[in-house]
Amino acid sequence: MSKEIVLSGIRPTGNLHLGNYFGAVRNWVNMQTEFDCYYCIVDWHSLTTHPDTKELRHNVLRMLSELVASGLDPEKCVLYVQSDVPEIAELYLYLNMMAYKGELEKTTTFKDKVRSHPENINAGLLTYPVLQSADILIHRALKVPVGKDQAQHLEMCRNFAERFNHRYGEVFPLPQAFNYGNDLIKIMSLDGNGKMSKSENQMNTLYLADNDELIRKKIMKAKTDSGPTAPNSLKPDYIENLFGLMQLVSAADTIEKFEHDFNSCVIRYGDMKKQLAEDMVKFMSPIRNKATEIENDKAFLSRIIKTGSEKARASAQKTIKLVRDAVGVNYI
Ligand code: TYM
Hints:
This protein has two domains: 5-185 and 298-327, Rossmann fold; 210-292, Orthogonal Bundle (Tyrosyl-Transfer RNA Synthetase). The protein is 54% helix and 7% strand. The protein has 14 helices and five strands. The longest helix is centred in the last third of the chain and has 30 residues, at 298-327. The protein is globular and about 75 Å long. Bound molecules: ligand 1. Ligand 1 binds next to strand 1, helix 1 and helix 8.
């Protein structure tokens, strides 16, 4: 029996951070053996915010190195760069006819960008969810491992796929966001304001490339308060987030100790952060060191990109044939 198809993507707009890792990449790694997995570095998407493209090559290669260092195995999954697969752009064109201006304007990520960059409201930004849908549907994927912030884009993808199927006949299965735990994950920024992010809030985001000292410094500066005043109080968001990070990297008895201290109002956040910082360094430094080693092996990276693009294109071409036949743009 053939395995279910999985697709996910990441923008090469900066270094991988803990939100990317625990929200998405950890699932990508775990899914490699069980499913037929495609993972894509989405360089076209990154162009929507007009980055300096002189950095693009470096960013793509660093991202690829960090993904492999995190445990992605190019022998077990298809790891490729979006712009190597022009079939995605063709599918994006057909899907654009399935997407309505009103719904695109209402997308949360679009509204955020309009607020933060009013000088750059381009059509690529508006149709960002359509391009993302093309990434997913080009392999007719069923499962999409992503963090919570992508849930709306996935819902839009299902809508576009359904409209296409309704208009032209069944081509696409309807994909679902996926996480091995039940709920999709959101890792908050260390100051408790919003999510960890590749470009904003850099001192409050932990990047896999951060050195040990910087990891310690960022965690020691994380927002806390003077502690609970009544036993078994509800934790404020920013404290919950520190416990959440501990859940990801610390031993069970360590977490239990600090939970107990919190519930009995004797917690010392300084001690908690020191412990969290050491556990985080232990977790992150091997990935960082491995990524740097891989990044220096340019021949290895080129091989991954080449093999990945060949495999991704083979799958994409099959879908494009189905799409062209369904739409009726096949005249030979
Ligand atoms: P991007 O590059 O912003 O993030 C990559 C993945 O990391 C997750 N993530 C988080 N998860 C939890 N907490 C956070 N603080 C956090 N920050 C980021 C994201 O949910 C994502 O899974 N639009 C996508 C890229 C994309 C894509 C696709 C994803 C393009 N095509 C097709 C899936 C399928 C994005 O900007 O992700």
